[in-house]
Amino acid sequence: MKMHQVKVNPFVMLRKNDGFTMIEMLFSLMILMTTSLFVLQLFSIIHTQMVANDKLNPKEWEVFTMQMQQEVRSSKVQDVMGNKLYLLSGEQLSSIEQYEDMVRRRVNGMGHEVILQNILEFEVKKDGNFIVIHITDKAGTTFSRRFHPFLRNEKKVDE
Length: 159
Known about the structure:
The structure is a single chain. This protein is α+β, with helices and mostly antiparallel strands. The chain folds into two domains: about 10-50; about 60-145, no CATH class. The protein has helices at about 20-50, 60-75, and strands spanning about 75-80, 85-90, 90-100, 100-105, 110-115, 120-125, 130-135, 140-145. It has a five-stranded antiparallel β-sheet, with helices on one face. Strands 6-7-8 form a three-stranded antiparallel β-sheet, with helices on one face. The protein is rod-shaped and about 105 Å long. The termini are far apart.
């Protein structure tokens, strides 16, 4: 009678039907934690996108006001016609206007640079030497800012 020699394999314990070993339990816990981490991140991203669709981001508003302040101060002539702001800087005539649900900037009547998004209403007017901009986002929040140019203009853009 021949005897077969059985090789001892360290992973034989994993295939036993007696129950989980400590390694199997740690491995299962690691898979569960990794999966839950990705699911939580996915829910967080989806929630952020759903909430942000109607509101104007406060940081976006800050960047807009800083850009507008710089552009208004560097322009020679500022004028408001038909709810559009026209700024003349050297040879460039920039216009700031509402286009659909965004505020855009155009240079010399060309281009389409989006400055703000999710805008319900854009209103610009001149109050003496100040330029006043009122913006209402889709959520109904109103933002307002006054800009004062360095150079005082006495003529209109179309002159």
